[in-house]
C-alpha cells in the first residue's frame, strides 16, 4: 500500500483520472447516455473480457483484465486469425454449488476456475454473485447462492478462497440488494437497517472478513434513496470501516450516475469509464468540489490492486488450462449439488431399466447455465440423452429424431444473436413439443421407463414471470399427464428432471410422477452428471438452499416484487433502454425465504434444506460443550448411514433465539456440515462452532448486534422442517457483540 | 309470379316484413351493431346452414334454407344426439375449376354439388363466387374464377346450370366489385363505367343471361359512393332492366346499412335480418317514407322464389348423397385443373422413381380449400403423401415421422376454433419446418426424387400480404435451396407442388427445381389427384385463368390495393370489428390482369392462359366463316396431338380490336374451347362463335356497347402470349350493339 501511495504521488492528474475511469469491452455503436465506453487494451489481450484498467507503462503499471463471471470465465472462445480455441469450463451454476453445502468441494471448484482465469491472462473474475434470492422470479438467482445469508457467505467464502488461491482476484457482487433485474438501473430498494444487516449485507460481511476478496462490485440499484455506487455509508462506513475491507470497489458496468459522488463514496473504479465521467471528475477537481486527496485514495487502492495482479507480476499465462481435468471436477460438483425432490417406491436409482424414452425438449438440449454475463463459452454441453447413452442406456431413437428435428428447426429460425442483441431482445426458448398420444403409448410399450426434462433459462436484464415460467406451460403439463398415464398403465416409472437455474412450481404435478430430480443448470458435463445420479453412481446429497413454494402467491415478497414504477418519470438509459424510476419496499423485513415460511406456518412444496438420498441417516448423541453460553459453544453430533448404499448427509444447525426483546424468525440457520461419503453402517461425528455473533440480531435502535439473554434451542435437522435432534442452552446476560 | 303476387296480397304487413327480414345462423352472444340476427327454423332443419327465410305456414309457405358456399355445401357434419354424419364434398376451389377451362366438367361438378344441396334439405347454395381477381392478394380469390370476365361468366354459367339442374337454387355473388377483404364492409370501390361494364359486371351479365341463377347476392362494399345492396342503379336498372334478371336479390350477411334503401333498391331479402332492420322498415311504412308497393314487390320476389324450392315442393331429401361417387368426380376435376408450370427435361411424369422424399409441411397436411364461408366440412383430405402411397410409391418414413410430429405439435397448440373465432382471429399456418442439412443429404442418397410442397391458405375477412405469403418465407426458400442442391448433386429430380388458392411468387426460385405443378386447393381428393398428374395417369391440361407476375410490384393494381383508409372516421361494425371508411380507386380501368401485362409489355412469370402438357399440340387450318363480320362469325381450327401421350388442349381465342375510337387492350379473350382427350396423332376440329357483343367495348360517352369499324385480328393461342395462329376480319361499319 505504501508502494501504491508512492506511485500515485508520482502521477499527473490525468493519469489518476485515467486509472479510476476504467475501460470496457467493445460494444459497437450504441445509443448510450454518457457516451460510449473507453476501449483499451482489453480487446487485444483477452478478447471477450469485460474490461481493463488503464496502463501506465511509465510507472511500470500494466493494464489488468477483468472478466465475467460467476459460473466460469467468460471470454471469446475464438479469435481472429488464430486457430487455437479459448473455451472455458461452464461450471454448475452458483445455486447448484450452494446446494452441495460442501465448502471443500466449492473451494476446489474455485481453485480450478481461478486456474482458468490465470492461465487465460485475466487478473480478476467478476464473481461470485452473492445477492439474496429474495423472490423466485429474480432472473439472476442462478448466479446467486441462497435465500439465506449464512449459506451465501460460507459458500462465497469457499469460492473466493479457491479462486484467489491462484493469485488472481475476485469481485464479489452485486453490493448490495440487487435482488431483481426489473428496473435494475433505477429501482430504489427500501430496506430496514435490520434486514440489511442480517440478510442482505451479512453474506458480504462473511466473505469480506473470511476470504478477503480483492475487489467488491457495487450494484446498479439505489438503496434507501442513494445509488449504492454513490453511497459513502455503504462503501466506506460499512464495507471498509465496519468490516475492514482493504480492497478496491468497482461499479457494475455503467452503474450509477454521478462519477464524483462515486469517487467520494469510495467506489474507486468506474467500469467502464466514459468520456463524460472523465470530464466530470476533471471538472470537479478544477472546481474544488472534489478533493484531490479523495481521488488519490481511489487511485491508490487501484494501484495497490494492480501490484498484486499476475499482469504486474508478468505471469506467463499458458492459454492452456487443463479443461479435461476441470470437466471431471465440474461433473463431480454437478452430481453433488443436484437435489432429489421425490422418489416414490425407490423409483431411483435405475435398477433394471435399459431402454429409456426421453421426453421434453430439454432432454435433447440440456441447459448448462443461465444467460447474460453469467453465461460461459464452453466447448460443449452433454445433453441428458448423451449422458444416458454414455452411461450405457439405450434412448429411444424415434423420439430423438422427432425432438432433434423440432429443435433444429427452432434454432434455424432463431439464429444466435450477439451478446448485446440477446440482452436487449432475448430469444425465447422453443415451446415444449406436444407429442401425439399414439407415439407416447407406443413408447410406453417399447421402453422400460420415461424421463421428462422440464427446462428453464433466465439471466440478467429481465426477471422471470409466473406464466409459462415459474408455472409449467400447458404443453408441459400435458406432456407430464400423458406420459405418466401411458407409462403407469404399463407399470413403468416416470422421472422428471428439472433443468432450471431457479425455482419452479412443482406442487400441482409432482403426484403424477414417480421421482423428481432437481438437476439445476449443471454446467458442461450436465447429462453425464444427471446420469451419475439416475444410475446411482452418485448418491444425491444436494439440499435446497432456497424454498420451493406451493404457489407463487405464497411468497411473502410477491406483493412487493418487482415494486412500484413511476412511468411518467421514465428516461432513456443503459443501452437505449427505457429507465423507469421505481421503488421496491422490503416490507417483509428479515422474513425472507424459510424465515417467512417457517415462522408464519406457510407450508412450502419443498422447504429450505430439503433433499432426499438413496440411503437414510440417523442422528444421535448431540452434545453441547456447555449448557450455558460463554463466548463460544461447540456442538457435536453423530451421524450414521443406516441404509444400504453409501451416501453423504448435510446436517443443518438452526437456532431458535429468545424473542423477549425483538421478534425473530422461528429459527435461523447458524451452521451446517456435510459428512464424508459414509458407507452403510458407518458413523461420523460432526462438529459445529457457535460464536456470539451467530446468536445476535441487529437491534436497530441501538444500532448494534445484540445476543439476547434467555434460552436458545439448537435444532439439528436434515431440512429446516425435518429437525431430528434438539438441545438447549442459555445465555445468562445479553451480549453487545458489535456496535 | 302471379301466384306469388296473390299470396303477398293476402299477407299482413308484419308477414311481409317477416319475409324480407331473413333469419341467420346462431352466432352466440356477439357485439353486433343492429343487434343479433333473428334465429329461426334453420338450426333445427339443417344445422350449420347460413340462414333461412321465414315460414308462413298459414299461406303454405315453408321456411327455405340457404347455405354456403362456392366450394361445396357448408353444413355441420355432426348433429347433437345423432350418430349419422353430414359430410359434404370439398370440391376443388373455384380457381382450379376455372383452370380446367372445361365447361362440361364444371357443369358435372355443379350437378353433383347441387345434388348434395338437395339431398341435405337445402334450397339455395350461396355461390358461385364470381368476382374478378383484380389483385393477387385478394383473400377470396380462391372462391373466384379468373381475372377475366369471359372465363368467369362461362365457368359460372356451367356451374349454375349444373347446380340448378337439380331444382335447387344458386346465389351468384358478390354483386359487385367485392375484389378485396380489407375494409370489405366500408370500402368504396371507385370504378369507371367502362371498367364496370366490361370487367366487373360482365361475368354476372353472362351468367344472368345464360344460366338464370335463382338469386343474386349483393356485396358488402360501396360502389361509386353507394352500398351495392342499397343501389337501385345496380340492382334494378342494370340487373333487372338491362339484363332481364327475374330472381331475388339477397344481401351478403349483415351487408349494407339502410334497410329501407335496400328495399327500394330491389334488395329483396336482408340476410340475416335484425330487430333493428325490421323496425326500420315498419317505421318507414308507417311514416310513408317507404311505399308498401315496394315492399310488396320485394316480398313477391321472395315468394316466387319459395314456390320453386324443394322445401315448398316438399322434396323428401335423403341426407344420403352419394359422396363416394362425388369424390371420384372431385378427383377427376382436380387433376384436370392443375397447371403444370415447369417441366425441364421431362422431369414429369415420374417414370422410374419409386422412393420419394416428400418435403414441406403441406406435403403432410395438404390444403383442400380456403377458409371462411368458402370452406367445406369434408370427411377427409387425402394428403400428398397419402396420394403418393395410394399410387404405389414409397414415401420416406423418417421425414413422415418428423413432419407429422411437427404438425401434430403445432395443431395441439392451436386447437380448432369456432367459425366465428377463426374469422375474427385466424390461426396462422405452421411455419415451414427447417431440416438439418444432414437429413436432407441422407434423403438425397436414399430416395429417387424429391417433392416439395409449398402451401398457402386464405379466406374471407383478411387479405393476403406480400411477406411470407405472396413471397416465399425464408424457411421455404432455404428448403428449396437445400433440397435442390442435395438432390441435384446426386443427379436426382426435384418437383415443387404449389398448394395454394391463389397466386404466389415463383420467378426467384423456379430455376432451382426441375418441375413445378400448381395443384391449387384441389378438394378432398387432393393427394390422389396430384399423384394422378405426377404419375402421368392424367396428363395435365389446366391453364392459368390468372396471371403470375414476376413480382408483386409489377401488378398495376398494387398501388391501389387495398386503397386509402380514413382511420379517423372508424366505427365499430360487424362482429365488433373496427370499420374504417376506405376508398379504392380502380385507376387501372379495364387494364386488369393480362389486359395490363400484354398491353404494357410487362413480362409475367407465367401469363394468363399458360399451362404445359406432357404432349404437344399443333394448330392448323384456322378458318373464318367470313373475312367480314356480319352479325356472327364462326371460326374453326384443327388441333392435333403431335406428342407421344394422350392429352387435352385448351385453345384460347383472343381478338385484337381496332383502337381508332377508344384505347383497348392489345387483345382480349373472346372464346375458348377444350379438346377431348386426343390420342397421339389424333386431330379435333374446334369451333368458336363470335357475335357482335364480343366485338364491342363499352363507350362511356354514348353509354353503349359499340363494335368499332376496322380490322380485327383473331389470335388462337395456347396462352395469351403463345399465339399459334392468327387471322383477320373486318367490320365495315360500327355497330351499336346495346344501349
Task: Describe this protein's structure.
Two copies of one chain form a homodimer. The first copy, chain A, has 23 helices and 32 strands. In chain A, the strands form eight sheets. In chain A, strands 1-2-3-6-7-9-12 form a seven-stranded mixed β-sheet. The longest helix of chain A is centred in the first third of the chain and has 17 residues, at about 105-120. Chain A is globular, with a radius of gyration of 26 Å. At the A-B interface, helix 16 of A face helix 16 of B.
How is the secondary structure organized here?
Two copies of one chain form a homodimer.
Chain A: H1 2-9, H2 13-20, E1 23-24, H3 42-45, E2 51-52, E3 65-68, E4 78-79, E5 82-85, H4 94-100, H5 103-119, E6 124-126, H6 149-164, E7 169-175, E8 187-190, H7 193-200, H8 202-211, E9 215-218, E10 222-223, E11 226-227, H9 232-242, E12 248-250, H10 259-265, H11 275-287, H12 292-308, H13 323-337, E13 339-343, E14 355-359, H14 361-364, H15 384-390, E15 394-395, H16 397-413, H17 419-424, H18 437-446, E16 449-455, H19 466-470, H20 474-489, E17 493-499, E18 515-518, H21 526-535, E19 564-565, E20 571-572, E21 578-579, E22 582-585, H22 594-599, E23 617-624, E24 632-641, E25 650-656, E26 668-674, E27 683-691, H23 692-695, E28 697-699, E29 704-707, E30 710-717, E31 723-731, E32 735-738
Parallel strand pairs in A: 3-6, 6-7, 7-9, 8-10, 8-22, 9-12, 14-15, 14-16, 16-17, 17-18
Antiparallel strand pairs in A: 1-2, 2-3, 4-5, 10-11, 13-18, 19-22, 20-21, 23-24, 24-27, 25-26, 25-30, 28-29, 29-32, 30-31
Helix pairs in contact in A: 1-12, 2-12, 4-13, 5-6, 5-13, 6-8, 13-21, 15-21, 18-20
Amino acid at each position: 500500500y505504501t508502494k501504491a501511495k508512492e506511485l500515485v504521488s508520482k502521477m499527473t492528474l490525468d493519469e489518476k483520472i485515467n486509472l479510476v475511469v476504467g475501460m470496457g469491452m467493445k460494444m459497437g455503436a450504441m445509443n448510450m447516455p454518457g457516451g460510449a465506453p473507453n476501449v483499451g487494451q482489453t480487446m487485444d489481450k483477452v478478447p471477450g473480457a469485460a474490461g481493463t484498467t488503464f496502463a501506465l507503462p511509465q510507472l511500470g503499471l500494466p493494464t489488468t483484465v477483468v472478466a465475467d463471471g460467476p459460473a466460469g470465465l467468460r471470454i471469446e472462445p475464438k479469435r481472429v486469425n488464430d486457430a487455437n480455441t479459448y473455451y472455458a469450463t461452464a461450471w454448475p451454476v452458483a445455486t447448484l454449488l450452494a446446494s452441495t453445502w460442501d465448502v471443500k468441494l466449492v473451494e476446489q471448484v474455485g481453485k480450478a476456475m481461478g486456474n482458468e482465469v490465470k492461465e487465460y491472462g485475466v487478473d480478476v473474475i467478476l464473481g461470485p454473485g452473492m445477492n439474496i434470492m429474495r423472490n423466485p422470479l429474480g432472473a439472476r438467482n442462478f448466479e446467486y447462492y441462497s435465500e439465506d445469508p449464512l449459506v451465501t457467505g460460507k459458500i462465497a467464502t469457499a469460492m473466493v478462497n479457491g479462486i484467489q488461491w491462484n493469485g488472481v482476484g475476485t469481485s464479489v457482487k452485486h453490493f448490495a440488494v440487487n435482488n431483481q433485474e426489473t428496473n435494475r438501473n433505477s429501482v430504489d430498494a427500501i430496506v430496514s437497517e435490520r434486514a440489511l444487516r442480517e440478510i442482505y449485507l451479512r453474506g458480504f460481511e462473511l466473505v469480506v472478513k473470511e476470504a478477503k476478496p480483492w475487489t467488491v462490485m457495487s450494484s446498479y440499484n439505489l438503496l434507501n434513496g442513494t445509488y449504492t455506487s454513490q453511497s459513502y455509508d455503504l462503501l466506506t462506513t460499512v464495507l471498509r470501516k465496519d468490516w475492514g475491507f482493504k480492497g478496491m470497489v468497482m461499479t457494475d458496468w455503467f452503474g450509477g450516475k454521478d462519477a464524483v459522488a462515486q469517487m467520494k463514496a469510495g467506489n474507486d473504479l468506474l467500469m467502464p469509464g466514459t468520456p463524460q465521467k472523465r470530464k466530470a471528475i476533471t471538472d470537479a477537481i478544477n472546481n474544488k468540489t472534489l478533493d484531490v486527496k479523495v481521488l488519490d485514495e481511489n487511485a491508490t487502492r487501484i494501484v495497490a490492486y494492480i501490484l498484486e495482479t499476475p499482469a504486474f507480476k508478468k505471469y506467463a499465462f499458458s492459454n492452456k488450462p487443463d479443461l479435461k481435468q476441470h470437466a471431471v471436477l465440474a461433473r463431480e460438483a454437478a452430481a453433488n449439488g443436484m437435489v432429489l425432490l421425490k422418489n416414490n417406491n425407490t423409483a431411483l436409482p435405475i435398477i433394471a431399466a435399459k431402454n429409456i424414452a426421453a421426453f421434453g425438449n430439454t432432454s435433447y438440449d440440456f441447459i448448462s447455465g443461465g444467460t447474460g454475463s453469467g453465461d460461459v463459452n464452453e466447448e460443449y454441453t452433454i445433453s441428458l440423452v448423451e449422458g444416458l447413452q454414455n452411461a450405457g442406456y439405450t434412448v429411444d431413437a424415434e423420439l430423438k429424431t422427432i425432438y432433434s428435428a423440432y429443435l433444429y428447426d427452432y434454432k434455424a429460425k432463431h439464429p444466435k444473436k450477439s451478446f448485446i442483441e440477446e440482452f436487449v431482445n432475448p430469444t425465447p426458448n422453443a415451446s415444449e413439443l406436444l407429442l401425439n398420444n399414439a407415439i407416447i403409448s407406443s413408447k410406453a410399450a417399447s421402453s422400460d421407463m420415461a424421463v421428462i426434462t422440464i427446462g428453464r433459462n433466465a439471466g440478467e436484464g429481465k426477471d422471470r414471470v409466473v406464466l409459462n415460467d415459474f408455472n409449467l406451460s400447458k404443453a408441459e403439463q400435458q406432456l407430464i399427464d400423458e406420459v405418466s398415464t401411458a407409462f403407469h398403465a404399463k407399470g413403468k416409472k416416470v422421472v422428471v428432471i428439472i433443468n432450471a437455474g431457479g425455482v419452479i412450481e412443482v406442487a400441482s404435478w409432482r403426484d403424477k410422477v414417480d421421482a423428481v430430480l432437481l438437476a439445476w443448470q449443471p454446467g458442461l458435463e450436465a447429462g453425464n452428471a444427471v446420469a451419475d445420479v439416475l444410475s446411482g453412481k452418485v448418491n444425491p446429497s444436494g439440499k435446497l438452499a432456497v424454498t420451493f413454494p406451493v404457489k407463487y402467491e405464497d411468497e411473502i415478497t410477491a406483493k412487493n416484487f418487482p415494486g412500484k414504477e413511476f412511468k411518467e418519470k421514465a428516461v432513456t438509459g443503459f443501452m437505449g433502454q427505457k429507465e423507469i424510476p421505481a421503488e421496491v419496499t422490503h416490507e417483509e423485513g428479515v422474513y425472507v425465504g424459510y424465515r417467512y415460511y417457517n415462522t408464519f406456518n406457510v407450508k412450502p412444496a419443498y422447504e429450505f434444506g430439503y433433499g432426499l438420498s438413496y440411503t437414510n441417516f440417523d442422528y444421535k448423541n448431540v452434545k453441547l460443550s456447555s449448557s450455558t453460553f460463554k463466548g463460544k459453544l461447540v456442538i457435536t453430533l453423530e451421524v450414521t448411514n443406516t441404509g444400504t448404499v453409501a451416501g453423504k448427509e448435510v446436517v443443518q444447525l438452526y437456532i431458535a433465539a429468545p424473542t423477549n426483546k425483538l421478534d425473530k424468525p422461528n429459527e435461523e440457520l447458524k451452521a451446517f456440515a456435510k459428512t464424508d461419503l459414509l458407507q452403510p453402517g458407518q458413523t461420523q461425528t460432526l462438529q459445529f462452532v457457535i460464536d456470539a455473533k451467530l446468536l445476535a440480531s441487529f437491534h436497530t435502535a441501538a444500532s448494534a448486534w445484540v445476543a439476547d439473554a434467555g434460552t436458545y434451542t439448537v435444532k439439528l435437522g436434515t431440512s429446516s422442517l425435518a429437525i431430528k435432534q434438539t438441545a438447549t442452552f442459555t445465555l445468562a446476560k445479553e451480549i453487545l457483540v458489535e456496535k
